[in-house]
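Appendix B. Raw example, untouched.
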Amino acid sequence: MIEVLDHDVLDQWRSNPAAFIETVLHNPETGAPFVLLDAERNFLQHAFQTDDDGRLRYPEQIYGAPKKSGKTGFAALHMLTTVLLFGGRFAEGYALANDLEQAQSRVFQAVKRIVEASPLLRAEAKVTSDRVTFPAFGNAVITAIASDYGSAAGANPVISSFDELWAYTSERSRRLWDEMVPPPTRKVSLRLTTSYAGFENESVLLLELYRRGLAQPEVAPNLHAGDGILMAWHHRPVAPWQTDAWLTSMQRSLRPSQFSRMILNEFTTTDSSFVSMTEWDACVMPGLGHMVTQTTLPVWVGVDASTKRDSTALVACTWDDANQRIRLVTHRIFQPSADNPVDFEGIVEATVLDWYRRFDVRQVLYDPYQMVASAQRLRRDGVLMEEFPQTIPNLTEMGNNLYELIKGKNLLLYPDPVIRTAISRTVAVETPRGWRLGKSQQMSRVDVVIALAMAALAAVRAQQSCYNLDAMADVTPDDELGIDAWRRLRLSMYLHSNGTIRL
């Protein structure tokens, strides 16, 4: 290692940082030296330009590219290059965790792995859980910092790395960003951002940087520089592994807004259309209608209830063996008003009990906010009621499930203009903790979509269950006990299982 640190070699690397990366730094996955992408090489050609006083021209640097472009790895390479070649004695580099990371940035983890994989660094570096020190490079150090602006006070960085800046949305993270401003006491000091696009109404910090960078002259394709900022912002794949087949797969699996944000690297809003009407119509079978009765047909029910404002909707679904899809069995919608609120006992409970008599109702999912009393009465009548609070995890799960069923054409629907209108007005609302189904306009009625999502989730869960209570009960509706006794026996077995068995 000492032989490599010859001043002539260091000067050569400083004039060509890409050569340092492709000679000294090794890929942990292959063990071979890194080979930079063209987009990365173009960025580095401008990243270390200095003015007549030897100061960096661009202390603010942003590298934006689609998901899975290798941005985290590039940030680690940039950090090691800056600290080791341009930092001087006692150089400090900081990898900062964002709001979605608990303690250590993924960039810091990448730095450690690269150091441990690179023979010329491994022997000299001292690696701990949150720090990498390089005694042979003037005691340079790279440190991981949690998303806590207090721990960053007093830092004197040559580089601060902010990975996936779209997730820096809190006041705490904004203060962390402010604390890591490049200090004027160092001629080489920069703040590096690697990210894809965020949400216009949440990722304010990233959007401000993007707009500032976009206002600068374009010095190379997708590369802007000027006014102290260098920004690469790519809307198309930059890595060879991002193939056309991968893009097609991402477009099929991601919601349109997320595809635009993650893959096309375009800023979006948190509200976007849930599904296209073409995808919905592909699930509709002309000539299919409400099922009237089939006492042995297992159905799962979702109830989205409201007393005076939104409508109250009940939806029943089943698993269709013939088509291997979740099938819409029947639904009801009741519209309350301030003068005529919903009569839960006379309407909602009566509908559930009517379906209970006409079908084999296995489970009813409901939001306990409005239906505690009704659920108690229905349980006494033998109906298996399961609370499904409208929490973000529950809302995300049921929304994802319904989305995947529609996208994969695994939902069988009968034509209904009211449901179709409701789905057309349904949006996916992104939040920092997940997403939920919402409505595009204040007066839109999407309650039937919520109830459908609940019922479909219950039906899918049942298909995924490894337990079969019918077989365990060893009784069928044709036995002498009759269908009511059969249902009560199965319900009793479920309740005594302490929740370990799903219907």
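End of appendix B.
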